[in-house]
């Protein structure tokens, strides 16, 4: 592998790792605050699984010489992060320990749309030319069936309940799609990722995502809002939400990076 | 008071393909689909499970304390069990044969004849 | 459907006979089940005990939750997430038990939440306290959960079957919690001077709360102890003081072995009486704390209340999906 190719691989792995890391973090902020105790317990497992996936991607980065997995997760600054803007967005106004005005409709829509995209991406990664990544995709895929069904159940049931719920779901879908534009993007590494056959073309993946989502939306009589890109997270462009998230996530680790915690 | 969605579901699970379903616990959910989405993570986070049933509690016909009287039996039914035929062991010994007891017969699984 | 059971109807028992029969069952070590007849005071004692236990688990998720995203490695993040999830899970188990007990009164989980918000339902003193550092997350896992293991295993044989079964599940998971806490503490104890200072500070902060956790030794101390009824009806076996003494025996040597100093110079084991001698915590403060006057009582309640109210629309939506 040339150095340029190694960097392209690293870029893709950072995208995958940072996505699940931030997604799991946003999920974990709901701990103790979900609308129903049984759901609190169930969705915490999904956040844990996702944090576990992030840890495995960071491990692959460690193996290609990018540094220690924990340092990669905790030290890198916002402009070095390659996650989609969608997963860094706050759950709602407030802080997780103070006045969290969290929006469950946004959580459900974001989680469903993200998990559906993750499933499409993982299916493609199973055929990746980078064997360790392909092997990891096979493993991660095993946990996605439950994640997807869980959020699809919430998505369809809330859409089929009260008028208030439907309005909140529509508003959430609008916000999620407004940030969705960078999700299948590979940023600056696009060309090499394609040439190395690390993962399929973003257009192909996006089509598959639409194809999977459309029948669900048709059943619910929902029109998909326009997809946009506010920032391209894949190139290290992010909203201010990410900075706040990173200072919380790294608060203890950064007290002493050389200490054993 | 406003109407709640709290329906009671009883959760059962199977640990291995050969195991029987075992009752785990109960949870509150609005419907079967939601109950199923919550069952494993609430009660079987750390143990293997190969199948789950969610059953609405009101669909279970249980027994009242009085009805539990129907469970009583006299202890005079050894004709139903091997206990009532224990004397055969001695008989077979007389014919220089071993008795085919439960342990022996249950060991034949797979059609092996030892 | 033809119902022949009337032919077998047992003679109608008077209230006194029912109570006698109930007491006999308890004496014989039988388990009382949700549908069985039980005297009101037994039901009410259980409701009070288990609702406080259950809501304490739910409220107990909040002080630790603060450290979930902040946990200092990927593995610690996973471990503490699983631990806080278990606390919610324990709350779920216990609330289910108490909800079945409240059914004859026509009450549901929604009423329990109302009781919490209006202050009728109290939660354990330890969950009114702030968690100031990562070491506090370790202390909670190791010592608060250690104390909880002692009180909960004391009720594993509880005469009320559903509670005993819930505790069986809970105690099995508490073993993981204690080890999760020990692992955090061990890393700090073997770490840098700053890390060591962090746990000592945490122990200093939490010691008094840990002693309070077991409740007052006698009713006279606060006037609210329920221990007599719970022992008489075999819900628990040991008194508050016996449990606190167990805690000392199990944990004092372990705490000291890590080089930590317990912030009570009078603490010692008296060979003659076989009892630990210790400085009493401030029981007036204890009373104030559980009545909602603790350092974080208001914030924690507000946190739970905000999320409960924000999510009201979800519960209303789900009510439309009943099937």
From TrEMBL, chain C:
It comes from the Bacteria. GO terms for molecular function: phenylacetyl-CoA 1,2-epoxidase activity. Keywords: Oxidoreductase. Pfam families: PaaA_PaaC (PF05138). Its EC number is 1.14.13.149. The keyword Oxidoreductase applies. InterPro entries: Aromatic_CoA_ox/epox (IPR052703), Ferritin-like (IPR012347), Ferritin-like_SF (IPR009078), PaaA (IPR011881), PaaA_PaaC (IPR007814). NCBIfam families: PA_CoA_Oxy1. This is 1,2-phenylacetyl-CoA epoxidase subunit A. It comes from Exiguobacterium antarcticum. The gene is paaA.
